[in-house]
Amino acid sequence: MIYSLKIRKLKKQVSDPKLNTQERKKLKKQLFYLEKRQRQFVKTFKKALVIGITLTVAALILLYFASRPKYPPTDIVGHVEVYPKSRVSSKKIPTSVQKHILEHTPSGQRGVLIQYNCKKYKCEKGLVNKLAEIAQKYPFVYVAPADYSGKIILTKIGRIKIMNNLDEKAIEEFIVN
User: Fold this and answer.
1) Cα–Cα dist 104/99, whole Å
2) pLDDT tens, position by position, 101-110
């Protein structure tokens, strides 16, 4: 904008018939460098604009994916032939191992996972012990902490149930049905 005004003013001065050749030459030189600076400014501005838009779009995409709920797997694609050391774990179970549990457990049955997220959600005292007690009744049920969206997340092949509170009866119904 500033360059445009100065360039317009210089062009007007250059076209003045009262100027002598030397003055006109001097003004044309100033005009040439001013136009060159304007082109550089526009080029830099366009690059900055493209970079700004690209960064904004990238940030929005990241924000979208970061804000989406995160759930455990309910399929077996990409599983590994490994089981956790214990059916009740104090450590997260890797996704590929979760998928193997869903496929089958050492008992031969398809597995059920009970996972809990006490970092993001407030868990009542004794929740983990109660979940472990439920799991002990069934040789194909595993319990572990997780960072999924939900306080208590139950999964089996093709099914998921998210619970905000401990409901032993509902958990057992999910396990057996």
Assistant:
1) 9
2) 999 999 899 9
**Structure tokens, 93:** 């179970």
E strand or H helix at 153, and its extent?
strand 152-156
Task: Name which of 136, 143, 128, 131 is nearest 171 in CA terms.
Answer: 131
DSSP, collapsed to helix, strand or coil, labels residue 130 as helix
Q: What is the pLDDT of residue 123?
A: 95
DSSP for 13-60 reads HHT-TT--HHHHHHHHHHHHHHHHHHHHHHHHHHHHHHHHHHHHHHHH
Name, in order, each residue with C-beta under 8 angstroms of 40's C-beta and a sequence gap of 6 or more: none
Q: How far is CA 73 from the centre of its chain?
A: 17
- When pLDDT is averaged across residues 154-165 and rounded to a whole number, the result is 97
The per-residue pLDDT for range 24-34, each reduced to its tens digit, is: 888 888 888 88
In the block, tokens 């924000």 appear at 63
